[in-house]
UniProtKB/TrEMBL annotation, chain A:
Primary subcellular site in the record, as a coarse category: other
Source organism of this protein record: Streptosporangium canum
Identification of the protein by name: Formate dehydrogenase major subunit
SUPFAM superfamilies: Formate dehydrogenase/DMSO reductase, domains 1-3 (SSF53706)
Keywords, sorted A to Z: 4Fe-4S, Iron, Iron-sulfur, Metal-binding, Oxidoreductase
Subcellular location as annotated: Cell envelope
TrEMBL record, chain B:
GO cellular component annotations of the record: cell envelope
Domain of life: Bacteria
Stored Pfam families: Molybdopterin, Molydop_binding
Residues covered by region (Disordered): 120-154
Entries under Gene3D superfamilies matching the protein: 2.40.40.20, 3.40.50.740, Dimethylsulfoxide Reductase, domain 2 (3.40.228.10)
Annotated keywords: 4Fe-4S, Iron, Iron-sulfur, Metal-binding, Oxidoreductase
Main location: other
Subcellular location: Cell envelope
Originating species: Streptosporangium canum
Protein name: Formate dehydrogenase major subunit
Molybdopterin oxidoreductase domain: residues covered: 14-387, 415-459
Length: 186, 840
């Protein structure tokens, strides 16, 4: 660290004076005062990147109820702390302003979205499932028992957790909905 | 791989630094090519010619790893005398039913091995007509198949004319370097370099690995691409060994998990088939066909009964077939594209779309949107307002006048989802590794996990039930999970524990071999049994890689049984010794009487190499100590697949459904069993049409993800790759009259889209059948919405609905198109242009 007035501490001056241009001389007082966001986090969660299927380890840093940084996990034997451009940008995935946080409803033939309470939406969806299932129930086809509905279908993405896929398949199957598909086929 | 799995590619780079030679076979020169020793450009859609020629090269020059091939593959097995090859029938195998475009596989069976059973199956398949044969294919045979039972007849000298080895030689004889040059556009010198490298790098001391992604799967003959690679790798002794294998580089964080615990129509958790109406009246009928009786599928009753017990608990008893009757039945193909057709026809009334965006992410976007517009109700759950949720107010059909918002009766619910850091649970990565994610914080606003959504939806549905018989499966369903937190979310760990399974004492099981057929055990997915062994979440294990050996068994948990390389018994010779010190991985320790090594043995730990099965043995006891492929009925790696495939026991080159090239190998132009739709919603470009002279192939960019909902709203990524472009060669640019940075319009019979032009020598025209074939590369990350900071036309709108007959995956990697200078027309003029092309 150089001593003297602020001008003599100015990196450009120190570099011109012949100090190592890429080493200490490049540091300013502001640089020295900077601390990484990761250091100030309240909690760190060990997670996995949600993009491709390599399964890189992520460390998710949270402060004051906000994600402040997502870094590669150096402990992972798969990724050894590395993340690609998408994984490195994944803090934006969870914090970007375009993310929707409210339920929206479009009535038949409607031209605009309308707000809807989550509980009400859940009840309305349950009502529709029960009604559609009953209206489209197929006990037999060509004399064979099929006990199913061809009136309800589902398509899931491949960023769903195993536990989520499990509850989905279990519920759909008990409902008799067989047209249950996933990104995995597409 | 460098583009789409960049962090995984670090290991390829590292291997290369240690002396490995890396080839990159791809129509385009990419970041992978830049780091490879050799880039081999290929015409999209011709890979079976290249791989088949490599197989032929190995056979003709007798470069196979003979000891491995004799002991571990079905090379010596004699096939039925009724079998006829594509060489005999000009591109068809025996058993083709031209009327229904389906194969009867009975003549492909091993000689004497219950051919009559396969034939019997045939008549049942046909019951109910063509549609019913569709679900009767590969997914119903499991990995074994009825035609497989018993010890087949073999000829260890490999000279019998009907042994698999000789059949292979005849089948691939015309797959020569000349044919590779003619159909793939790969020079004889490049082929020779590749062939020499892979054969020199295989055997006792060395192994070669192949890696692929959807460039191999998205074809009307995609499964057979992988099969050809499997044949090559088995001949070279590269399966079950370190540094070997065929790596499927899957494209999504838990796409492997979505297959293991499927939200797929044709399977139940753990690859158990869904029951079929015309064959599976009861549990016994079902189990007779759900997989082979020998090998580890022989325990299928334990797997299935434990699943039924996990779902219906106390209600499932021996007397009621463990509630097998509660399962709905299939009657055909109920896959995604067939479901879209059913939406257009009006059969499907309600649709859940969860973390998926078919309006722009699936082939034939217009068909997808026509289906969505014809629903009664639609539930979309995602992080942003994806195009599937908003098609009614901003879809392209509004601009062309094909739809009007006011006319669309679909009621739409958009429910915001929790992100990956706002919930806990497991992803299964591309190497079958389950990794638990801790929850970092609560989701904002109305955002909830899909776990929470389905749990609470299930609760509400169950509150609305009657005493009616049709409601019994819902009434009796086990649906009581501990609730946590302000929003009463179900415990993901409790669900994982149910997936793992519990024993009669209620304790977590530790291995699938503990599952019982009598209803005393419960298990939601038998291949995941052990992930909660010892009441510990094994997927949450995080012992740092640097503190472990290269296999890193204490990081996460891989199915099955935490084994990291499948079929690793094959890493040792028949006597149980490593093939070489250099490639030692798993071996037999005679002193301790057990298999040992770096990994968990994928074999019964105490079964000695000299074990011979007694007469009439079942399940794994029927496999010898030298049979590494323990899920197969005969324990062998299948060079020839006597059952389980819809389009032939061996791969044959067929041109894509849309191709500018004639198939000079056979009289059959395209896969005779491919799935096509006869509907105005699914138009096709005619083959070899001068109106569509160019090959079109699609791909991903490092900076984006699928149709863009997880990348276009992110400013960093949007800035890195702001705009849709088409990648073409300088020669094609000159031919069409476009310049770098200008606009081009790409046309198929589905639609026309516009893209910026990237003129680059990374795409080279190839000489195929004596003329120059141009290829057009198009990424597919853009669309009009999803909160994207960057938008563009929808590449998938160009794609046809034509599917592989085994797995119903669409052909998205090799279709035809035209390319014109300038931007596309707007409004109705766009329809007029496409109409002009349709009728030429």
């Amino acid at each position: 660290m150089a001593h003297g007035g602020w001008i003599s501490r100015w990196p450009v001056i120190r570099q011109l004076r012949g100090e190592d241009a890429r080493g200490d001389a490049a540091r300013s007082a502001r640089t020295d005062a900077l601390r990484p966001r990761t250091e100030e986090a309240d909690t760190v969660a060990r997670s996995i990147c949600p993009y491709c299927a390599v399964g890189c380890g992520q460390l998710v840093y949270v402060k004051d109820g906000q994600v402040t940084q997502i870094e590669g996990d150096p402990d992972s034997p798969i990724s050894r702390g590395r993340l690609c451009p998408k994984g490195s940008a994944s803090k934006q995935l969870v914090t970007h302003p375009g993310r929707q946080t409210r339920v929206l409803y479009r009535r038949p033939h409607g031209t605009e979205w309308e707000p809807l309470d989550l509980d009400t939406a859940m009840d309305m969806i349950a009502d529709r499932v029960v009604r559609t299932r009953r209206e489209t129930w197929q006990q037999e086809e060509d004399g064979k028992v099929v006990r199913r509905t061809m009136g309800i279908a589902g398509l899931g993405g491949a960023t769903l957790d195993n536990e989520e896929n499990y509850l989905m398949k279990k519920l759909y199957t008990a409902l008799g909905a067989i047209q249950v598909e996933n990104q995995a086929r597409i | 791989m460098a583009e789409c799995h960049p962090v995984g590619f670090q290991w390829v780079v590292e291997a290369r630094a240690r002396g490995a030679k890396v080839f990159h076979v791809d129509p385009r020169y990419t970041r992978t090519s830049a780091l490879a020793d050799k880039h081999v450009p290929i015409r999209a859609g011709s890979d079976i010619v290249l791989l088949g020629a490599l197989v032929n090269h190995v056979l003709v020059n007798e470069l196979d790893f003979r000891e491995y091939v004799l002991a571990y593959t079905n090379a010596s097995t004699i096939i039925s005398e009724r079998f006829q090859d594509t060489e005999d029938l000009d591109g068809l195998f025996s058993g083709f039913d031209a009327e229904h475009r389906k194969y009867d596989p009975s003549s492909w069976a091993y000689e004497g091995a219950r051919e009559e059973a396969a034939a019997g199956l045939r008549s049942e398949q046909l019951e109910g007509g063509e549609e019913h044969t569709e679900a009767a294919g590969p997914d119903q045979y499991g990995a074994g198949g009825a035609a497989m039972l018993g010890k087949p007849r073999t000829d260890p000298t490999l000279t019998h004319p009907r042994c698999v080895y000789q059949i292979l030689k005849r089948h691939f004889a015309r797959y020569t370097p000349d044919l590779v040059a003619e159909l793939c556009g790969i020079s004889r010198a490049d082929f020779a370099e590749l062939a020499d490298a892979i054969t020199a790098n295989s055997g006792r001391e060395r192994t070669t690995a192949w890696a692929y992604a959807v460039g191999w799967t998205q074809h009307s003959v995609g499964v057979q691409y992988i099969r050809t690679a499997a044949i090559l790798q088995l001949l070279l002794g590269n399966m079950g060994r370190p540094g070997g294998g065929i790596m499927a580089l899957r494209g999504h964080a838990s796409i492997q998990g979505s297959t293991d615990i499927p939200t797929l129509f044709n399977i139940l958790p753990g690859y158990l088939p869904m029951p079929h109406a015309h064959r599976h009246q009861g549990l016994d009928d079902y189990l007779a066909e759900a997989g082979a009786d020998t090998g580890f599928w022989g325990r299928k009753r334990s797997y299935m009964v434990s699943l039924l017990k996990a779902w219906w608990g106390e209600a499932a008893t021996e007397e009621n077939d463990f509630c097998f009757g509660h399962l709905p039945r299939l009657t055909g193909d109920h896959g995604h594209y067939t479901t879209v057709m059913a939406q257009i026809e009006g059969t499907v009334k309600g649709y859940f779309v969860v973390g998926e965006n078919p309006a722009v992410g699936s082939s034939g976007g217009k068909a997808q949107r026509l289906g969505l517009a014809n629903l009664d109700w639609l539930v979309v759950r995602d992080l942003t307002l994806v195009e599937t949720a908003t098609f009614w107010k901003d879809g392209p059909e509004l601009e062309t006048g094909e739809m009007r918002t006011e006319d669309i009766a679909t009621e739409v619910f958009f429910l915001p989802a929790a992100s990956h850091v706002e919930k806990e649970g497991t992803f299964t990565n591309t190497q079958r590794l389950l990794q638990w994610r801790e929850k970092a914080l609560d989701p904002p606003g109305d955002c909830r996990s899909d776990l929470s959504f389905y749990y609470h939806l299930g609760k509400r549905i169950r509150q609305r039930l009657s005493d009616d018989e049709i409601d019994r499966p819902l009434r009796e369903l086990t649906w009581d999970y501990p609730e946590e937190g302000e929003h009463r979310d179900p415990s993901a760990e409790a669900v994982l524990r149910e997936i793992n399974g519990t024993g009669p004492d209620g304790r977590a099981l530790s291995a699938y071999t503990e599952l019982k057929p009598d209803g005393s055990t419960r298990c939601g997915c038998w291949i995941y049994c052990g992930v909660y062994a010892g009441e510990v979440n094994q997927a949450a294990r995080r012992r740092p890689g640097r503190e472990q050996n290269r296999v890193a068994l204490e990081w996460g948990w891989a199915w099955p049984a935490n084994r990291r390389i499948l079929y690793n018994r094959a890493s040792a010779d028949p006597e149980g010794r490593p093939w070489s010190e250099r490639k030692a991985y798993i071996w037999w320790d005679a002193e301790k009487g057990e298999w040992t090594g770096d990994d968990v043995p994928d074999f019964e730990r105490d079964k000695p190499p000299d074990y011979l099965p007694p007469e009439g043995a079942r399940a794994e006891a029927a496999l010898a100590g030298t049979d590494p492929f323990i899920m197969q009925a005969d324990g062998k790696g299948w060079l020839f697949a006597p059952a389980g495939l819809a389009d032939g026991p061996l791969p044959a080159h067929y041109e894509p459904h849309e191709s500018p090239v004639r198939n000079t190998l056979y009289g059959r132009q395209a896969n005779p069993a491919r799935k096509i739709y006869r509907s105005p919603a699914a138009p096709y470009n005619p083959p070899q049409s001068p109106r569509f002279p160019y090959v079109l192939t699609t791909y991903r960019l490092t900076e984006h993800h699928t149709a863009g909902a997880m990348s276009r709203p992110l400013s960093y990524l949007a800035e890195l790759q702001p705009e849709l472009f088409c990648e073409i060669s300088p020669q094609l640019a000159a031919e069409v009259g476009v310049v770098n940075g200008g606009w081009a319009t790409i046309v198929t019979t589905r639609t026309a889209i516009e893209a910026r032009v990237l003129v680059t020598e990374r795409v080279r025209p190839l000489r195929v059948e004596g003329r120059l074939i141009h290829q057009v590369g198009l990424p597919y990350h853009w669309a009009w919405g999803s909160g994207g900071l960057v938008v563009g036309d929808v590449t998938n709108d160009l794609m046809p609905l034509v599917l592989d007959p085994n797995v119903y995956i669409q052909e998205g990697k090799a279709v035809t198109c035209d390319l014109r200078a300038g931007r596309r027309p707007r409004g109705k003029a766009l329809l007029d242009l496409v109409e002009e092309y349709r009728h030429g």
